[in-house]
Design a protein that fits this description.
This protein has 357 residues and is mostly helical. It has 14 helices and four strands. α6 packs across α10.
Length: 357
């Protein structure tokens, strides 16, 4: 009899190992029926990701979903002592995993000793794990690997409707000034200004190539979520900063090369990563002494949105520029901009200033 084998990942190398006995398929019944849930979970994950790739999922989506499923499998095998089989999926198991994914641990989650693994996870992160697992379960039902989804009676994690505090203009200027005092000032200033001036995601910034920038008009051809392309635009200040960076640091760069690259260390010359950009902004914020606002690419994106609306832009224009598929998130920016206008009116009410009665 042929032994079933499953593909697993160790580091960056794919290896094969015999399936545990509990994950083996049952002997064929006379009717030809197959025991549901007996398929190896990791193999089903690979099939799901392959299906997603054929549908055009972006490399970022594939990477994120693979990581989410790898973490679930690690928890299942190491914390619960269960075999990585579809048959192990149940509502109670999923709830137990979401609880584990949320809580902080002195030992770190998923066998990781990184400080972030010891802290309590953000509600939005746990909600993302829930959506990924649910989508995977739905795929398994469609493929006939599961009779029904184990998520039918599992409620999604609650995510508080928190407003990200945008930067004040003085704080953005302080961040730019701090970037000028860094190790790579021309590059870092250009990145800060591009993020706050265009509202692009940090992954989109890192995905830009030299040839995607129109030096004449200042337009950028951006590949966003879902492999959707859109055009975004830079103002004069951002264009000057970007041109200065290209002329001083990247004069020999070819059109297909990354727009922003790492400098120094083992990664010198490689494409700038989102985590690298976050670290640069965090350190610049510390040098600038900015308090009460998280110095991150996402905060710059929020700052762009709020100031675009304050400057007279409308919601549908903002939707196109930021690459959102719906208006749910954008309405939060409207609320922020409107509360700002209300405060401004209270401070500058003509009738109040003229002391009319």
């Amino acid at each position: 009899m042929t032994t079933n084998r499953a593909t697993t990942l160790r580091g960056n190398r794919a290896t094969t190992q015999p399936l545990p006995a509990s994950c083996q398929e049952a002997p064929a019944k006379p009717s030809g029926a197959r025991r549901r849930g007996s398929a190896d979970l990791r193999r089903a994950v690979e099939n799901w990701l392959a299906d997603g790739s054929s549908q055009g999922w972006s490399s970022r989506t594939l990477t994120d979903r693979r990581q989410a499923m790898d973490r679930f499998c690690w928890w299942l095998e190491n914390e619960e002592g269960e075999e990585a089989c579809l048959a192990a999926l149940s509502p109670s198991l999923i709830r137990a995993y979401l609880t584990y994914a949320r809580k902080g641990s002195t030992e770190g989650r998923y066998g990781c000793d990184h400080p972030g693994a010891a802290r309590e996870a953000r509600p939005s992160t746990v909600a993302t794990y829930f959506r990924v697992l649910r989508a995977f379960a739905n795929f398994c039902v469609l493929e006939g690997l599961l009779d029904e989804t184990p998520f039918r009676n599992v409620r999604p994690p609650r995510v508080p409707n928190e407003q990200v505090q945008p930067f004040e203009p003085a704080q953005v200027q302080a961040l730019v000034d701090a970037a000028r005092r860094g190790r790579t000032p021309t590059r870092d200033v250009a990145m800060v200004l591009m993020l706050v001036d265009t509202g692009m995601r940090v992954s989109e910034l890192c995905g830009q190539t030299v040839g995607q920038v129109d030096r004449g008009s200042g337009e950028l051809n951006v590949l966003g979520k879902g492999n959707k392309r859109r055009r975004i635009y830079m103002g004069q200040s951002t264009r000057r900063a970007l041109w200065r960076y290209l002329e001083t640091d990247r004069r020999e760069a070819q059109p297909e090369e990354p727009l922003f690259i790492s400098v120094g260390g083992n990664d010198a010359g490689s494409v700038m990563t989102p985590s690298g950009v976050r670290q640069i902004l965090k350190k610049a914020g510390e040098r600038a002494g900015i308090k009460g606002v998280r110095c991150s690419p996402h905060t710059l994106r929020h700052t762009f949105a709020v100031n675009f609306l304050r400057g007279g832009g409308n919601l549908f224009e903002l939707q196109q520029l930021m690459g959102h598929t719906d208006l749910t998130v954008l309405r939060r920016y409207v609320a922020l901009a409107q509360s700002d206008l209300a405060q401004a009116h209270r401070q500058a009410s003509p009738a109040d200033r003229m002391k009319l009665r």
